[in-house]
Specification:
By secondary structure, this protein is α+β, with helices and mostly antiparallel strands. The protein folds into 4 domains: 5-97, Uridine Diphospho-n-acetylenolpyruvylglucosamine Reductase, domain 2; 101-219, 2-Layer Sandwich (Uridine Diphospho-n-acetylenolpyruvylglucosamine Reductase, domain 3), CATH 3.30.465.10; 223-338, Alpha-Beta Plaits; 345-456, Alpha-Beta Plaits. The chain has helices at residues 5-15, 29-32, 52-65, 119-128, 145-150, 158-161, 164-167, 197-200, 234-248, 260-269, 298-311, 324-334, 337-342, 359-373, 408-424, 440-446, 449-462, and strands spanning 21-22, 45-47, 68-72, 90-94, 101-105, 110-114, 131-132, 168-174, 180-183, 209-216, 218-219, 223-231, 252-259, 283-291, 315-320, 346-349, 378-384, 389-396. The chain has a 7-stranded antiparallel β-sheet with strand order 15-12-14-13-17-18-16, sandwiched between helices. Strands 5-6-10-8-9 form a 5-stranded antiparallel β-sheet. A 4-stranded mixed β-sheet has the order 1-2-4-3. Keywords: FAD, Flavoprotein, Oxidoreductase. Residues 39-220 form the FAD-binding PCMH-type domain. Belongs to the FAD-binding oxidoreductase/transferase type 4 family.
Length: 476
Amino acid sequence: MTDHTAFLATLAGIVGDPRHVIGPGGDFEPYVVDWRGRYHGKALAVVKPGSTQEVSDVVKACAAAGIAIVPQGGNTGMCGAATPLGERDMIVLRLDRLNKIRSVSRLGDSIAVDAGCILADIQKAADEIDRLFPLSLGAEGSCQIGGNLSTNAGGTAVLRYGTTRELALGLEVVLPDGEILDGMTALRKDSTGFDTKQLFIGAEGTLGIITGAVLKLFPKPRARAVSFAKLNSIDAVLDLLAQARTELGDRIGAFEVMSRGQIEVIAENLPLVNIPFELDTPWYVLIELVDTLASVDLNAALEALLSNAYERELVTDALVASSETQAAAFWKIRHSVSEGSKKAGYVISHDSAVPLSQQATFVTQVEKRIAAYRPDARIVMHGHIGDGNIHILAIIPGLEQNQKDQIQDTIRGINTIVDEETVALGGSISAEHGIGIANRERLARVTKPTELRLLRSVKQMLDPNDIMNPGKVLPA
């Protein structure tokens, strides 16, 4: 066995304190196991640099020693991209100490941050200058912006503000040879060649390590209205979305859908989450309207939309939040889907996006085929239907998240069903969660050979020695 004592001492010297290097005998568990307990890896060490230069020096040391690097933010990902596979010598490079808000511009509507900043802290910093950073997801209290960028996170506000890719103005990246690419620009317009930052957004740490970002800010909404509506079919959900767009335009801040089964799973497993309505229809939609003008009566606009939809028999009933507390309680239901589902059994989850015109066909066909293939599976759904992204979950009762080896054939079979329907309808198998470990085989099955060759060519050009997050994203 190779003795890495000298190498670990070198890393400790770079980061300035041995306490920032967790070596053999240390507590590796939080860093080598994903949050769902699905992927258990191993690493030589966990290293926590405190600056971009230290990241660069760590990368140079690893490159010289032939040691691979797994960049890790908050370790909240869904696909195992931040878990060290341990198939070769590797370290986990945590970005927790890169957590500074570098600058904020109210005039430029931008904020420059370290990649280790917690998403909620960025939201707070924007709020302090009367601005909004709109990226919002269930893990926002622990996920880091570097991870959000590396997976091109979506969240609940894509309909109005776009994905993380669309929220990034500039990036700072440490390349696989340790060189620092300084692209920390706040420019809104720049046509000088390739937009290099886009290579690293969504690359899941396989091309370099994002250490900083300049992000877009927006005017804060002054008015808000939130409702939960009950509907009898997915077609009615889509009709309501079309009507909402016609009547309300870009005031639609979110349009989130949940099946009855999904909310039942939350109610059964998270008793502290209040469900303020009877579950007597198959579909439920959470609608949020926002406007930068405080004088706009969005409650009235939302009530008019729902009243019209009720008359057209699209909506059977609806609740409009009467206070911010009630609105937060509605959103609590939506943000509890992952935790509630995880407690219900082994979750085979999917992150498909298909054109809205095909959404009803997709939902119907997938549910029908999974039910026929695995009758005991509990099929539940939730998602950002306004942007075409709906998550299909097949929950296998009686199994824990670490028991995937017992149902590998089932996982493969259900994935194949979802992928076949997704591709047939012109969709994508990953709208926002990424590829990581979980979806490499699926990516190989659905991606055109020309595109795969291009992806591999970019990887080979930037990381010829494959030290950046090896074994992730690209199929073997």
